[in-house]
UniProtKB/TrEMBL annotation:
Name of the protein: Leucine-rich repeat-containing N-terminal plant-type domain-containing protein
Family, per entry: Belongs to the polygalacturonase-inhibiting protein family.
Native source organism of the sequence: Salix brachista
Superkingdom, natural source: Eukaryota
Domain Leucine-rich repeat-containing N-terminal plant-type: 27-66
One GO CC term on file: membrane
Keywords, sorted A to Z: Cell wall, Glycoprotein, Leucine-rich repeat, Membrane, Repeat, Secreted, Signal, Transmembrane, Transmembrane helix
Keyword Repeat: yes
Length: 368
């Protein structure tokens, strides 16, 4: 080999090594990921077997990097997936351990998804609120405990907050209503207590608010009606009391309203029966009085469930003027009188009217 060839080869190797170093993820990101991995235990699927080598941007399972900065941008680890790893094993994942605060050293992190591993416990690291680029925080389906970080509202780019199906406790942080970009809020099936923030309506970008199966009390804030994008509101299986704000029936895109299994009382606002709401579940509360006779062509329900309350009097005749009612449940009330004939009553079963005071006519027994 001539001296010229040797120098050329050396220069080429130097460039390749330099390029490889530049294009690899920073050592600090790699160290943060390895510390994160060390706090978790997943022995069956080998999720972390690919987390080797110096470049955490290259073929590390569930890790994605920004193409320009080579900083870690996304961690996507799902315990229930159609990924070949799961298909080959023929099972869903199970992982124990906790979420290490080292995750907060990934300063460019945009999404953190550690979902459906069933055994990950411990708190949400408080430092998570220091990640200025975080858009998605999805920890559904684990055993996460402790409270939602008090200053969660610092994450002004957050669009998804999902901690459903965990053991999260405490109140909903006041700062949560500062999440001006939030579109999807899922806190279902936890141990959250206290009342809903009175300024909940500040979440103007919210389209889904799912908070069922908690211990949330107090009243439903009227400010919710200011969330003009809200399509799905589920507050069922809580301890809410008081009346339903009439303004909820005036929301332009609210399609699903689940308030069943609470302690709500008073009169149901007429507006709920002539609105955009197509799935309305108010069962298992303490509503009483006559059912409003206000149904009309704007009334379109795939589900209308008013069972297990204390309604009395006749079934409103205007129900037959509804454009559509798929499932109707008026059982377990104190209703009395003849069930109206024609649609939608002609396709309903007796269970829709059972356990009332003195209803009669098809599909129940004949009136005397």
């Amino acid at each position: 080999m001539t001296m010229f060839s040797y120098i050329t080869l050396l220069a080429t190797l130097t460039i390749l090594i330099f390029t490889s170093t530049v294009r690899s993820c920073p050592a600090s990101d790699r160290a943060a990921l390895l510390a994160f991995k060390a706090a978790l235990h997943e022995p069956d699927l080998g999720i972390f077997n690919s987390w080797t080598g110096t470049d955490c941007c290259h073929n590390w399972y569930g890790v994605s990097c920004d193409m320009e900065t080579r900083r870690v941008a996304d961690i996507n680890l799902r315990g229930e997936s159609e990924d070949p790893i799961f298909q080959k094993a023929g099972r869903s994942g199970y992982m124990t351990g906790s979420i290490s605060p080292s995750i907060c050293k990934l300063e460019r992190l945009s999404s953190l998804i550690i979902a459906d591993w069933k055994g990950i416990s411990g708190p949400i690291p408080a430092c998570i609120t220091s990640l200025p680029f975080l858009r998605i925080l999805d920890l559904i389906g684990n055993r996460i405990s402790g409270e939602i970080p008090a200053d969660i509202g610092r994450l002004d780019r957050l669009t998804v907050l999902n901690v459903a199906d965990n053991l999260v406790t405490g109140r909903i942080p006041r700062s949560l209503t500062n999440l001006s970009s939030l579109m999807h809020l899922d806190l279902r099936n936890n141990r959250i207590w206290g009342s809903l923030p009175i300024d909940f309506g500040r979440l103007r970008m919210l389209s889904r608010a799912l908070l069922s199966r908690n211990y949330i009390g107090g009243t439903i804030p009227d400010s919710i009606s200011k969330i003009y994008r809200l399509a799905d509101l589920d507050l069922s299986l809580n301890k809410l009391s008081g009346e339903i704000p009439a303004s909820l029936g005036k929301m332009a895109v609210l399609a699903t309203l689940n308030l069943d299994s609470n302690k709500l009382s008073g009169k149901i606002p007429d507006s709920l029966f002539n609105s955009a709401i197509g799935n309305l579940n108010l069962s298992k509360n303490t509503f009483q009085g006559y059912l409003p006779d206000v149904f009309g062509p704007k009334s379109y329900f795939t589900v209308l469930d008013l069972s297990y309350n204390n309604f009395w009097g006749p079934i409103p005749k205007s129900l037959s003027q509804s454009s559509f009612i798929g499932h109707l449940d008026l059982s377990h009330n104190r209703l009395c009188g003849r069930i109206p004939a024609g649609p939608p009553f002609d396709h309903l079963e007796a269970t829709s009217f059972a356990y009332n005071a003195c209803l009669c006519g098809k599909p129940l027994g004949a009136c005397k």
